[in-house]
Amino acid sequence: MTLAQLAIVEGFLVDVARVAVLVLFAGVVGAIGGLIHRWYANEPVPDGLTVLVGLSSVALYLNTAGALGEVIGGTGGDLLALEMVAYNTITLFLSGVTASAGGRVGDRAGISVFAVSGRKSVEQDVSRIVKSVGRVTTVEVPDDIEDIDGYEPVDAATKEKLAGQTLLFPRRLTVEELQTRFVERLRIDYDVGYVDVEFAEDASIEYLALGRRESGLGPTLPPGSAAVAARADPPNNASPGDAVQVWTTGDGEETSPRRVTNAELRGTAEDVVTLTMDERDARRFDTERRYRLVTLPVEARTDREFAAQLRAAEETTTAVTIESGSPLVNSSVGALDIAVVAVRTSAGDIEAIPPRRRALAPGETVYAIARPAQLRQLEAAAAVDGQ
């Protein structure tokens, strides 16, 4: 073998060794990137990211040894030569493959290292983060869906549609955040008014009850009142909520206008108005007659305001009887940590807004306003042994 041939073989072996070193270096960089990504984000590193990091390090060397060497010392060779293009292409291809594999190895090493160091247990104890598989948290809706006491029940079609559904949520949510998003999801996507749900630490649902938000005027009407639709000429500045007087127009057999009743304007649609009034006054209206309205000064309606606020709020009312042997016997009203509006004694007397220091006795009934979950806990505590 001539000296020229020996030089070619020696140069080829040097290039092979250099390629092997660069490929190994790309794999090490990819592994370090996978380890750091697992530590920082606690999720698998994307293959594209490790390939980008590994190729960047190799490309930096090739540019330094090639282009910069050519400019400074003339030792880098011709960058456009066929052998140089083939050398760079093969090096970058093999480096990308090993960088991707190195990222996966680094990710697995990160899982083992952080598991041994106790990071997962600390994370669960401090922030109660729901453990997820992949990039999402899955929540399976149970087949048994209860009704919330005090609310209109959700129709069977909605329950059937929800039962057994698997809902997807972002990962790394706390149990409280997951519960909030689950409630919002049911309200928006399934038109559910009220949701009472309890989640376990593993994101499974232990209890689920639904209620429908009442619509229309009925829930806001005080006892003994009614709503009537009639043809009338309301004043231009009249708006829903105004107190008005209802008068006849004086047409026909009547020689002059006559006041029919006082009412409250609830809505208008062209010449048709919706009025609320006492039930006995509603019988005076004639569907064939046209009326005229006169706006009155504002008059406070505590009963209607309370009904409207309660209808729009998340809370509802319930009445719970304290059984003999219940843990609530001899407890104070303030210890219930909910709004108690009245207490009915065993003799039948009603105490409105009882003082917080008042002790509860067996046989008494507590009228409370709270969220469904709090009321359910109150009912459980009021029973014997909390059952």
Describe the structure.
The protein has helices at residues 3-41, 47-72, 82-116, 119-127, 156-162, 175-190, 279-282, 302-312, 372-382; strands spanning 136-140, 146-147, 166-170, 194-199, 205-211, 225-233, 243-248, 259-269, 272-278, 290-295, 316-321, 339-344, 350-352, 365-370. With 387 residues, it is α+β, with helices and mostly antiparallel strands. The strands form four sheets. A five-stranded mixed β-barrel has the order 6-9-8-7-10. A four-stranded antiparallel β-sheet has the order 11-14-12-13. Strands 2-5-4 form a three-stranded mixed β-sheet. The radius of gyration is 38 Å and the shape is elongated.
In short:
The protein is of the alpha+beta class and about 375 residues long.
Characteristic terms for this protein:
387 residues; alpha+beta; five-stranded mixed beta barrel; four-stranded antiparallel sheet; 41% helix
Helicity range of the residues?
40-55%
Mean pLDDT, as a whole number? 77
The helix-and-strand class reads alpha+beta
- The DSSP helix count reads 9
Poorly predicted sequence stretches spanning 5 or more consecutive residues: 115-129
Number of strands: 14
SSE order in H/E notation? HHHHEEHEHEEEEEEHEHEEEEH
The geometry reads as elongated
Distance between the termini: 97 Å
Largest sheet: 5 strands, mixed, barrel
Radius of gyration computed on alpha carbons: 38 Å
Strand content: 15-25%
Largest sheet strand order: 6-9-8-7-10
